[in-house]
Amino acid sequence: MKIEIITTGGTIDKIYFDAKSSYEIGEPQIAEVLQDANLTIDYQLTPLLRKDSLDLTTADRLLIRKTVEDSSCDKIVITHGTDTMIKTALSLYDIQGKTIVMTGAMQPARFRFTDAIFNVASAIIAVQLLAGGVWITMNGQVFDPQKTRKNRDLNRFEFV
Amino acid sequence: MKIEIITTGGTIDKIYFDAKSSYEIGEPQIAEVLQDANLTIDYQLTPLLRKDSLDLTTADRLLIRKTVEDSSCDKIVITHGTDTMIKTALSLYDIQGKTIVMTGAMQPARFRFTDAIFNVASAIIAVQLLAGGVWITMNGQVFDPQKTRKNRDLNRFEFV
Amino acid sequence: MKIEIITTGGTIDKIYFDAKSSYEIGEPQIAEVLQDANLTIDYQLTPLLRKDSLDLTTADRLLIRKTVEDSSCDKIVITHGTDTMIKTALSLYDIQGKTIVMTGAMQPARFRFTDAIFNVASAIIAVQLLAGGVWITMNGQVFDPQKTRKNRDLNRFEFV
Amino acid sequence: MKIEIITTGGTIDKIYFDAKSSYEIGEPQIAEVLQDANLTIDYQLTPLLRKDSLDLTTADRLLIRKTVEDSSCDKIVITHGTDTMIKTALSLYDIQGKTIVMTGAMQPARFRFTDAIFNVASAIIAVQLLAGGVWITMNGQVFDPQKTRKNRDLNRFEFV
Fold this sequence. Notes:
By secondary structure, chain A is α/β, with parallel strands linked by helices. The first copy, chain A, has helices spanning 30-36, 58-70, 85-91, 116-129; strands at residues 2-9, 14-17, 22-25, 42-51, 75-79, 99-103, 133-138, 141-143, 148-151, 156-159. The first copy, chain A, contains four helices and ten strands. Chain A is globular, with a radius of gyration of 15 Å.
């Protein structure tokens, strides 16, 4: 059983370019997270997009969908910005025969204090245990995207 | 649904006392790990023991068992040293009606590079998704303790 | 001998607000840096401004100058954004009887990998060893602001 | 002006080998510290010993002395365990024509919270600013080893 991990950008991958005094989405940070975790599972990493999730277009979502559908793996983890994570999850909702778990972070993986490691671990475990379908792991919980919203004031996901 | 998290010591909680130039098991580090993760789940933390798992006695294991049995929660996470984690897991194997997930770390939670956060997250998610019984989450995987060993040379858990 | 540490903002204090998907300058991070360092020197912390250094006005620089002049300490460290650090240093250049050392960071202090700790330590030591005047510590060196420029392409300070 | 950095072991370089459940002195950690700091100074790194400073012998101290004397640099930083740092400093006290600054750490450089970065930065700056002789930088201060002791109860260096 192999897990495919697709990265699309978002806060989890934000790095800081001082030369421009701005934050930009950099290389997927998940590779480093997985290395520290000393994993023995079999996985492959697919860097697909490098975008703030508010900037994802319909074409981007179709590309994510096609990448999932064409994957030889039936266990898929997708890292994604949190602002439109639910929207992308719903766009994948009718894919059959695969378990897809989306996650991201409220604080960049590069920070000393970040939820990125916890969230990625949550997705890696959830994708192995959950039945087929699309799920979101954030804040230590597993969410069904059809019954979830991002609470922007409290900066967290919650059940509707 | 509330999760009870019982800490028993092990490498995950090792800190460094320079005054004695030695490593000792300190306060449970898991509180800080959980705080960074911005959790929305309901949990309670029970610091029970502060021991290297090679030093755990039969009395210690009976105490762990009694604490699990007496808990008002049916979802239990136990942090534990890795050397005898499987032994303790087997001592809890016949407890009915609860899901128990044990985890620990190969590198202390205080390190910049540690598997502690990943492993704790794995346990928190697994305890919510798994059926009753005793499980171990290490190296990104869920193990049945009856079919698991710690490979000391490769410093990881693996299926027998 | 007491050291006064005045904070004015800049990258060193940048934190990330996911709710707004933007980086902002937060509480001075230096307090945490100093705490980890286990200092025995006597110092006081004065949070003065919380600005990107490109946004500092003439009034801001006059406020910084007045704060330095009015300080009861003759050893002053100022944390500051790097883009106009030299300009502010020159605006303090004729102050007599005090040693003033300015520093900042190219990567926020909150990052796992940051130059903030190194630079703050450099300033704390330099302010104790240097004669009166205004100095900058960046990149492991002590600079005279009259002979220094920020090389934005290489993202570092260098002698003119 | 080139700085030679000689590493001899000590807590600063302690890493954790779970396979043996013990802490050992590993590769010099200073290389990583210096890399994060984005230094522009010219330096060379000389890994000389890898010992707890309580285990340093007379022969070890003679080797350190010879390495300092033979160095083509007149600015020398030495990382060293704290327990006998003063003793080694005094053994180098009569070397002429060089500035030697010794430092170390109470918490390993691998920790998320460590004084290692601060102390190394202190030494790098001090070695550039101080006159010839042997000095110690710890706890944000510069010490003359002839007037210094390690307070083991408070876990810090202080003037006698």
